[in-house]
Amino acid sequence: MSSVIKRRAPTGGWLFVWLGVTLAVAVAALLIGTRIVSPLDSAAQNSERAVPVAVAVTQGSIAEALPAISGKVSLGRTLSVAPTSVGNVGESTLVVTASPRIPGDSVENGSLIVEVSGRPIIALEMAFPPYRSIEPGASGRDVEALQQALMRLGHYAGTVDGKYGPGTASAVTRFYRAAGYEPPAPSPEVQAAVLDAEVLAAEADAAVLELASDAEPAIVAAARRTQADADARLAAARFSAAARLAAGEVFAITGPATVAAAGQVGSAVSLEAPAAVVRLGAPSVVLRATLDVEAAFLEGTAVTITRPGSVSDVFDGTVVAISEFTANEGAPGVDVSVAPTGPLPSAFVDGSEVTATPSTAPPSVAGLEVPLVGLRQDGEGASYVLVVRSELDSEGGRGYARVPVLVLAEGRGKVIVEAESTGSAGLRVGDQILLGDPP
């Protein structure tokens, strides 16, 4: 008799066990997955992580860069030599008849500048240009200025009294003859007056000679009075015809002067077409120095002037004047005037833009040298560096000490500094300073 084995169907308890195990496995897999980081994810995280970089403090030296200021060249002010009359020649016939000068020639006191219609234009160092032709018998400040000018040339040795007398007239004659010319001729009216006076004087002399030896004393006295009056009239007429200074034949200069342009022989002279152009004053350079470089350009400082973009166009100069401080167009500072120490190269013209630097380089500054990128500033502008310390911080990381420093010099991407504190709290050669942000 066979027996039949019957299996019992699963009950609900086993189902719950299976579900619990499955859920536990899923949770474990999720936890493990959050702990596993792929190589790409790790690289991405490292790229965002700040990596501290430190460099050692060294002993070094830096030469301060030469400060430079900018400005323009001034060759002086120019004046036209354009007389409206010379001698007794009117404006309608003025023409250049001799032009002995070329641009760049120096114009000396008492020298000929140009000849117009046969008459000279002579340079004369005067306080102001003559505003009239100065003739014998004139008086005034212009006569006084003329006497002083003639005295400087050695032509006049009399009293500077502002009165045009015979001594001044003789000095004017010497002035013209030194330039190779005679004084301008007197006017026809003056010449006629001299002839008339000479005739009267001759007649008076003859009348005295014709007097009989037994002429009455009263007649003799009258004749001699007439003779004396005629002689006085002749002397006055001749003095009136003495040398005069024609206003159009003198060109007043003050200080150095050079020819800037010269008219061609045969060219007509007018205000629009002068016989010559003279530049007055010595060449100079005016530059602007702001407050941060002003101390490098004190009066007496030797400087080198260069033209931007050129290494060969250069000349030396000396600072001769410093202006008062002004806030000029947002650039507070001073104007620095420089006098060239020699002739200017031809590349420099009036208005040329230039730069100036001190001729002597500043001394090098030695001390503790750190990279410029390692220098930091706080909210008040004070400079400091972060020094890596061997001690760990409270969280087990690397420690950094903030060391205040004074910047002594800067150049080539580095700075020379001096720690405000000494000892262990200061800065020493070999200390590691942090570049960038702390981790």
Characteristic terms for this protein:
alpha+beta, conserved putative lor/sdh protein from methanococcus maripaludis s2 fold, Muramoyl-pentapeptide Carboxypeptidase, domain 1, 4 domains, six-stranded antiparallel barrel, 24% helix, rod-shaped, disordered N terminus
Give structural notes.
By secondary structure, this protein is an alpha+beta fold. The chain folds into four domains: 53-63 and 364-435, conserved putative lor/sdh protein from methanococcus maripaludis s2 fold (Beta Barrel); 77-185 and 244-277, PGBD-like superfamily/PGBD (Muramoyl-pentapeptide Carboxypeptidase, domain 1); 188-240; 283-358, Efflux pump adaptor protein, beta barrel domain (Elongation Factor Tu (Ef-tu), domain 3, Beta Barrel), CATH 2.40.30. The chain has helices at residues 12-35, 39-48, 141-152, 166-178, 188-209, 217-240, and strands at residues 53-56, 58-63, 69-74, 77-81, 96-98, 112-116, 119-125, 250-253, 257-262, 276-280, 284-290, 302-306, 314-322, 326-328, 331-340, 353-358, 364-371, 376-377, 383-392, 398-411, 414-419, 432-435. The strands form five sheets. A six-stranded antiparallel β-sheet has the order 2-17-21-20-19-18, with no helix packed on it. Strands 3-11-15-13-12-16 form a six-stranded antiparallel β-barrel. Strands 5-6-7-8 form a four-stranded mixed β-sheet, with no helix packed on it. A hairpin with a 2-residue loop joins strand 20 (398-411) and strand 21.
